[in-house]
């Protein structure tokens, strides 16, 4: 990516303007010394890298929906069309040019030449208002980085910064008067066109992904369902996560979860081949095997279950290791009642503070949370007569359970939620409880809201 940034400096929209921009910021021959020119040029380049890095981080980290949509056909078709447009812009078929806006800002006219503030400002503005040779590449890199980051590759967060770093590298040397850059010429157009072809290659890649997704849904849904039902009837699978997890806990067995949908061609293939393989069947013999139907993976409860297990598409598989709790950590042995919507409504109606723990046997943090709740620093405040203790062993296929999770404003278990009649939102703690003083303060806040 650094090499790509260096190559962008050799395009016809950038290379001829380097001496002009150096003159505007007071670098090059106007700097007075090679050291000062090097520093001014470096400041200009550093601003470019910083802006591209910051812009990439903002877009990538705020595009939270990428993880849920990048396995859909319309997302990949949209990216294909976008990259085709960007590639054609690099081939001069279309024009994408933000650099015309630079004249309206006129930083050089407002600031004194030769200052580092002006050099940094000009570098940042030139990065934001990219020219026709740069803007398509920047957009392509940010979109591609967002997609790859959503798929779990964290290193792609730095990709836009490295692009900016590549563009920044020649500037300190040019600012210091080192004329190693080639002279402008017709060859610059070829560099720009080569980058256009590179972007079109990415368009072809995403088009291929879109076709693969379309092809994966071109399946006889009844045939898929029939295969799953045969597994449920003949091969020891269960269709109830709650029942399967309860069995695993009672028998201290590992859990294998197969998340599927009747439109999923890959699910059908896996069910008919890999999951029927003799070695796989033998390995899974000691597991509790669960088939979870995620017919619409973009809607609750399926989307919440996929998020819980880190999935972004189907089929998705998860292996869980339930931990049986001893009596000291048993919720019912500690005075906790089984949750029900009616119990929660009754407690709040009677002006009680409802403390609800949603947990699952496969979550290691759940055992830690129960142990902490049996510590006197947490246990004693919960024995007050105005507190109702409710616990729920989470079943992601149960709509009432999912409704409670939505109310707590938390995705993932375990979670402890404190509710009272006049609290606008529950006070929720996920995975880790606060210090005892903070826990008591949360209870007092719920009381004062009554």
Describe this structure in words.
- It is a single chain.
- With 450 residues, this protein is an alpha/beta fold.
- It has helices spanning 2-8, 18-25, 34-62, 66-69, 73-90, 102-105, 107-110, 116-128, 135-150, 159-168, 170-175, 187-217, 221-234, 241-251, 265-272, 278-283, 302-308, 341-349, 364-373, 376-379, 399-408, 436-448, and strands at residues 237-238, 255-260, 288-293, 316-320, 337-338, 353-359, 387-393, 415-419, 427-430.
- The strands form 2 sheets. It has a 5-stranded mixed β-sheet. Strands 1-3-2-4 form a 4-stranded mixed β-sheet, with helices on both faces.
- The radius of gyration is 30 Å and the shape is flat.
Write out key terms for the chains shown.
single chain, 450 residues, alpha/beta, Glutaredoxin, 3 domains, 4-stranded mixed beta sheet
